């Protein structure tokens, strides 16, 4: 890629790697992370099949899975999308807004569970008791 | 954070150059992807807030345990793992296409674009099978009688109005599922459908890129930056799948 054939607004061109080693290394890393996530998913499945599923352990595994997913996202964005090769200011314009996703994840977990507790305690007015989820049987002739 | 060959004391914001040292097209693609990320984020937040607000949700290991041609074998998460690997692999072939473009190797770009397109079509086929299976496979559901009438068993598919994966009950020694939360169907089909639409449009874009490459458009232009931009879109599609996979199948 020569400077005069690409866009004139580019000041300098980053050097491109000669070999594809980094690409394949990242592929194997992403695959290993995915396999670990699947192993944890199946572990959670087996915990639920057991006699007394340990809720804290399941929660810990789910938290671990979220962290592994964020790690995968980092490698895809930084290496596959080459954001890691851009200049720092541009990286920040992408990364800083995406940090909002950390808030989003915390928010849906917190709000969701809070809503559940409100429903199960009638807005805090009584003891915690699981509200039955009532499902109406479909009427005859109801559209699917 | 490559600083090789970067001129020192460059006044980035004084005009006459891109302050991000990237072409207009590339920067705009990044910001379009940001907007799309927040759209998907909004859908996933809405789904997850509802999901955690309910006492009982579906167990993805029970819902997603089938594999094409395996009949009724219980293979939790096996098919969706295959779909994830297909998409990761097509992402790799896309990066390799961009890499070949950096070295002005037209034949290399063509080869890897073809592989990426095949990967995208494979993923779409898998998703089509998954949807068809959910919409047509019937499950026994115990429906309570109304006003003291006797209950009965019905056969339900998984649609936007019916969810046969609710909590289990034991009636006369037999275990049945009861109706599950209705919103599961709409959220699942809507979010995976929106993602599948992005995969489809990505495949179309990649086909156009392949045709332009074969017609030597980029060779004559002197650079393959268009392939890079298409690559950004394709990797974004892969990234969204990673999060959809997390939200629907793992947590």
Structure description:
The complex is a heterodimer of chains A (144) and B (251). Chain A is mostly helical. Chain A has 2 domains: 20-85; 88-126. Chain A contains 4 helices and no strands. In chain A, helix 1 runs antiparallel to helix 2. In chain A, 13% of the residues are buried. Mean pLDDT of chain A is 83; it is low at 136-144. Chain B has helices at residues 24-53, 60-63, 78-102, 106-136, 183-214, 217-221, 225-250, and strands spanning 139-143, 152-156, 168-171, 174-177. The longest helix of chain B has 32 residues, at 183-214. Chain B has one domain: Cytochrome c oxidase, subunit III, four-helix bundle (Four Helix Bundle (Hemerythrin (Met), subunit A), Up-down Bundle). Classes of the chains: A mainly alpha (144), B mainly alpha (251).
How do you describe this structure in short?
The complex is a heterodimer of chains A (144) and B (251). Chain A has helices spanning 21-49, 55-80, 88-98, 100-120.
Descriptive key words:
heterodimer; A: 144 residues; mainly alpha; B: 251 residues; two-stranded antiparallel ribbon; 7 helices; disordered N terminus
Rounded average pLDDT of chain A? 83
Calculate the terminal CA-CA distance of chain A, rounded to whole Å.
56 Å
SSE succession of chain B: HHHHEEEEHHH
Total tally of structural domains of chain A: 2
- Structurally, the number of domains of chain B stands at 1
Segments of chain A where pLDDT lies below 50 for 5+ residues? Answer: 136-144
User: Roughly what fraction of the amino acids of chain B lie in strands?
Assistant: 5-15%
The string of secondary-structure elements of chain A, in order, is HHHH
- Characterize the largest beta sheet of chain A: strand count, sense, and whether it forms a barrel: none
Quaternary state, please?
heterodimer
Helix content of chain B: 55-70%
Strand content of chain A: under 5%
CATH superfamily of chain B: Cytochrome c oxidase, subunit III, four-helix bundle
Q: Which word captures the global form of chain B?
A: elongated
């Amino acid at each position: 890629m020569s400077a005069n054939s690409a866009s004139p607004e580019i000041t300098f061109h980053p050097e491109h790697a000669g070999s594809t080693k980094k690409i394949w290394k990242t592929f194997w890393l992403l695959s290993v992370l995915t396999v670990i996530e699947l192993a944890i998913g199946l572990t959670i499945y087996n915990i639920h099949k057991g006699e007394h599923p340990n809720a804290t352990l399941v929660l810990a595994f789910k938290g671990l899975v979220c962290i592994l997913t964020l790690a995968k996202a980092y490698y895809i964005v930084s290496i596959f999308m080459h954001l890691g090769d851009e200049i720092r200011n541009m990286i920040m314009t992408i990364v800083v807004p995406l940090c909002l996703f950390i808030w989003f994840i915390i928010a849906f977990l917190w709000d969701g569970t809070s809503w559940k507790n409100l429903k199960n305690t009638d807005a805090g007015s009584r003891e915690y008791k699981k509200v039955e989820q009532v499902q109406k049987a479909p009427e005859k002739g109801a559209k699917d | 954070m490559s600083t090789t060959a970067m001129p020192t004391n460059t006044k980035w914001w004084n005009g006459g150059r891109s302050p991000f040292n990237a072409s207009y097209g590339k920067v705009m693609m990044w910001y379009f992807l940001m907007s799309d990320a927040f759209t998907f984020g909004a859908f996933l937040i809405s789904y997850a807030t509802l999901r955690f607000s309910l006492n009982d949700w579906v167990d993805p290991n029970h819902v997603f345990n089938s594999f094409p041609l395996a009949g009724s074998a219980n293979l939790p998460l096996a098919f969706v793992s295959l779909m994830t690997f297909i998409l990761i692999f097509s992402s790799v072939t896309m990066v390799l296409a961009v890499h070949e473009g950096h070295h002005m190797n037209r034949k290399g770009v063509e080869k890897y674009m073809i592989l990426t397109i095949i990967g995208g079509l494979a993923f779409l086929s898998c998703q089509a099978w998954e949807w068809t299976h959910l919409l047509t496979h019937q499950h026994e559901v115990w429906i309570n009688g109304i006003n003291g009438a006797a209950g009965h068993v019905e056969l339900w598919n998984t649609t936007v109005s019916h969810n046969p994966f609710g909590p289990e009950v034991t009636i006369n020694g037999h275990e049945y599922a009861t109706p599950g939360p209705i919103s599961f169907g709409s959220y699942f089909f809507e979010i995976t459908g929106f993602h599948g639409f992005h995969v489809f449009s990505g495949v179309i874009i990649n086909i156009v890129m392949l045709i332009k490459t074969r017609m030597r458009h980029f060779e004559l232009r002197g650079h393959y930056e268009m392939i890079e931009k298409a690559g950004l879109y394709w990797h974004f599609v892969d990234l969204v799948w990673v999060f959809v996979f997390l939200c629907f199948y793992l947590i």
